[in-house]
Amino acid sequence: MIQIQISLVPLQAGVNWHMTIILGLPAVILLGVGTLLYQISKEKYTFAHGVCAGLALLLTTINIAAVIPMTNTVLSAPPVDLFHMVHIILGIVGYVFGIGAFLTGISGVRTKIPGFVALFCWTAAFVMGYIQFLM
């Protein structure tokens, strides 16, 4: 009998999935590709845009689930790390706008602002997170 176990435990001691590019980079790439395709031809690439953006939202949701157990530790540290707080705020804003873009997209409403805000915030949060990871 083959047993498969999927877990969001750290990949190695002290490193959580959220702190690596395993989930963030594919999400940013998928959202960027989906947005670019949609801008090239709305009629031709609407479905591909929806799949890419939907997968990016799913990866981001998994990423958020991976970071929730660490939230109290990070936020209760005495010196407030402004760089990290901006990273967190960008992630939250991007996620809220990503959900808004997803809901408006599946309802058939065509608006670019929520998707572009999500793309900008997630890209900026990813870059900031990667800079923190390298430090």
Q: Rounded to an integer, what's the Rg over CA atoms?
A: 16 Å
- Strands, count: 0
Mean model confidence by pLDDT:
82
Q: What coarse outline follows from CA principal-axis ratios?
A: elongated
Number of helices: 5
Please give the largest β-sheet: none
Assembly level: single chain
Strand percentage lies at under 5%
Order of helices and strands: HHHHH
Helix content: over 70%
Number of domains: 1
Structural class: mainly alpha
Distance between the termini: 44 Å
Which residues form runs of ≥5 with pLDDT under 50? 4-13
Note down, in words, how this protein is organized:
73% of the residues lie in helices and 0% in strands. It has 135 residues and is mostly helical. The chain has one domain. Helix 1 (21-40) packs antiparallel against helix 2. The relative contact order is 0.15.
Please give the structural blueprint.
Elements: H1 21-40, H2 42-67, H3 71-75, H4 82-106, H5 113-134
Helix pairs in contact: 1-2, 1-5, 2-4, 4-5
